[in-house]
Amino acid sequence: MEKPEILLESRLFHIERLRPTSQTGQPLIRDIIRHPGAVVVLPILDDGRVVLIRNSRIAVDRQLLELPAGTLEPNEPPIECARRELIEETGYRCDKIEPLTEFFSSPGMLDERMYVFLATGLTEGEMALEEGEEIEVEIFTLAETLDMIKDGTIEDGKTVASILYYRAFCMDA
């Protein structure tokens, strides 16, 4: 395959045009978004409640209930990014943070790998929002978050996947 053509370069990602050959020898064109990766943080309070954020998302023109998350900085270990994003978006600091799982967010067009972390031993503090972020912290029981996933109130894929993973594989049956 020839060298990719760069279609767009932005601060957070770039888009490449690839020209692979199919299994039958037919030429293909694929535009791929190259992303440095991101973290998702599942903050659980000592009483088991979940810390979510209500985040204004321009791409879908609405506010979404989400877990805190963010893009990796160059050479930043995912666990450090998770600690940073937790503080920035919620104000909470954690005594313990541990990896839960990893997944590709949309591998048909995007190479973004998401690293999911569980944060516990939370202490409330000041948020450190980036310019342009419009975020409010909201706290729900796990049962409420599951109900909101079921009824479509929580629409964010990384949040749905992370909470369901936690419920299925990290809690006592």
Description:
It is built from 3 helices and 10 strands; from the N terminus they run E-E-E-E-E-E-E-H-E-E-E-H-H. The protein has helices spanning 78-90, 142-150, 157-169; strands spanning 5-9, 14-18, 30-34, 38-43, 50-57, 62-66, 69-71, 93-104, 113-123, 135-140. The longest helix is centred in the middle third of the chain and has 13 residues, at 78-90. The chain folds into 2 domains: 1-34; 36-169, Nucleoside Triphosphate Pyrophosphohydrolase (Alpha-Beta Complex), CATH 3.90.79. The termini are far apart. A hairpin with a 4-residue loop joins strand 1 and strand 2 (14-18). It is an alpha+beta fold and 173 residues long. The strands form 3 sheets. Strands 7-4-9-8 form a 4-stranded mixed β-sheet, with helices on both faces. A 3-stranded antiparallel β-sheet has the order 1-2-3, with no helix packed on it.
